[in-house]
Design a protein that fits this description.
By secondary structure, this protein is of the alpha+beta class. The chain has three helices and eight strands. The longest helix has 14 residues, at about 5-20. The chain is globular and about 40 Å long.
Length: about 130
């Protein structure tokens, strides 16, 4: 049993990139599916697929690398809020990641969204991860 599924999600992606894998499989949940959609929309992953295996389900993510340098598109994945210490932020307190070049994924009352969307909708919430 995993005590922090979001940290497990980020760690699987990080480890797959360090090992230069093209595809990573992650157990699915609604929050992880939304985080995957955000990563795809912001251009951090190549593509993704949700598979139903009559249990929890799987998320298959095709990782993105730069063509010339073979460096991963995601430089850093950082878990902010964790089960032992939750981190919440008001819309005015949400930090910009890498001076606006990265994203923060925030769980709000209106769903999981990026920091820019949360500021635009004037909602705060739990800061789950920084990605750049």
């Amino acid at each position: 049993m995993v005590t922090d599924p979001i940290a497990d999600f980020l760690t699987r992606i990080r480890n797959a990139q360090m090992a230069k894998h093209r595809i990573v499989e992650i157990p699915a949940s609604n929050v992880k599916k939304r985080m995957t959609e955000i990563l795809y929309d912001k251009g951090y992953i190549l593509k993704y697929k949700f598979e139903d295996d009559n249990k929890q389900g799987l998320i298959k993510i095709a990782l993105k690398y730069h063509t010339e340098t073979k460096e991963p598109a995601i430089k850093n994945l950082e878990r902010v809020s964790r089960p032992g210490l939750r981190q919440y932020a008001k819309p005015t307190e949400i930090k910009r990641v890498q001076n606006g070049l990265g994203i923060a994924i925030i769980s709000t009352s209106k769903g999981v969204m990026t920091d820019k969307e949360a500021r635009a909708q004037n909602v705060g919430g739990e800061v789950m991860a920084y990605i750049y």
